[in-house]
Write a structure and sequence with these properties.
The protein has 1 helix and 14 strands; from the N terminus they run H-E-E-E-E-E-E-E-E-E-E-E-E-E-E. The protein is mainly beta. Strand 12 and strand 13 form a beta hairpin.
Length: 238
C-alpha cells in the first residue's frame, strides 16, 4: 500500500509536465486546497485545512478512471484526539449516451486508508447527468468496514450567474441498511451544500460554499466538528 501511494504521488507530479500516455487517452491532474475537507457533509480533516492530489483518465470509448490522494483524520479516545491516515480513492466507470444531453453513468469507487485498513470499503454507483445537473445512487455493502450496508442518494445542480461565476447546489441522503451501529438510533443522515463557483481562467476554480449535515446515520468515526460551516476551496487542474 505504501508503495502504491508513493507511485501515485510520483505520477501526479510528472503528468502536469506533459507526460505522454497514448494518443487515445485524455489525462488530467489537479490539486485541491480546502479550508475544511467535507465528504457527505462531515469533516474528514478535523475542521482543518486539507489538500488533495488527483489524476483522471478519459478514454475515447466513454470509459473513465481516476485516483485521489489526501489525508483523513478519525476521532479516537480520549475525546478530542485523532488518528491520521493517507486516504487513497480510486474509481472507474463508463458513460452510456441516452440522449444528446443526458448520460447514464455506471461505476465503482474504492477507499483505502493506509494506516487504518479496517476502514477500507468499496461502493458501486449509477447516475444520470448532463453538463449542469447530476442524480446518482451509490451502494456500499460494507461501509467503512462496519459490516453494514448503506445507500447514498445525491443530486447536484449548477447554473450561470454572470460571466465566469456559477451557483452550485448539492443535496444528499445517506441511509444505513440492516443491523449495525447508527448515531442516535437514526439510520439516515442528510447533507447539503450551496455556494458560488468562480473560474477566472481555464483550469482554475474558486468555490465558497455553506455546508450542513444532519444527525444520525451510520458511523464514520469522524469527530464532533460543527455540522454547519462555510468552506473555501481552490482547485488547479491540468
Amino acid at each position: 500500500m505504501r508503495r502504491s501511494l508513493r507511485f501515485l504521488l510520483a505520477l501526479a507530479l510528472v503528468l502536469p509536465l506533459g507526460f505522454p500516455l497514448g494518443a487515445r487517452a485524455d489525462i488530467g491532474a489537479s490539486l485541491m486546497l480546502q479550508s475544511d475537507a467535507r465528504e457527505r457533509g462531515l469533516s474528514y480533516s478535523a475542521g482543518r485545512p486539507s489538500a488533495a492530489l488527483s489524476l483522471s483518465w478519459d478514454g475515447d470509448s466513454a470509459s473513465y478512471a481516476g485516483a485521489a490522494l489526501s489525508r483523513a483524520r478519525f476521532a479516537t479516545q480520549p475525546p478530542g484526539t485523532y488518528r491520521s491516515s493517507p486516504w487513497l480513492q480510486v474509481y472507474g466507470g463508463h458513460l452510456f449516451k441516452l440522449s444528446p444531453e443526458i448520460d447514464l453513468d455506471l461505476g465503482l469507487r474504492g477507499h483505502q486508508f493506509a494506516s487504518i485498513s479496517r476502514y477500507n470499503f468499496a461502493e458501486a454507483y449509477v447516475g444520470l447527468q448532463t453538463e449542469q445537473w447530476l442524480l446518482r445512487l451509490s451502494h456500499a455493502p460494507n461501509y467503512y468496514g462496519g459490516h453494514q450496508a448503506t445507500w447514498y442518494l445525491e443530486a447536484q445542480r449548477r447554473g450561470p450567474v454572470q460571466g465566469a461565476l456559477w451557483w452550485v447546489l448539492h443535496a444528499g441522503l445517506l441511509k444505513a441498511q440492516g443491523q449495525g451501529y447508527v448515531v442516535q438510533s437514526n439510520s439516515q443522515r442528510w447533507d447539503a451544500r450551496a455556494g458560488l463557483s468562480w473560474s477566472p481562467q481555464p483550469g482554475l476554480e474558486v468555490q465558497l460554499a455553506a455546508v450542513a449535515a444532519g444527525q444520525g446515520g451510520p458511523t464514520t468515526w469522524t469527530g464532533d466538528e460543527a455540522r454547519r460551516t462555510v468552506v473555501l476551496g481552490v482547485t488547479w487542474a491540468h
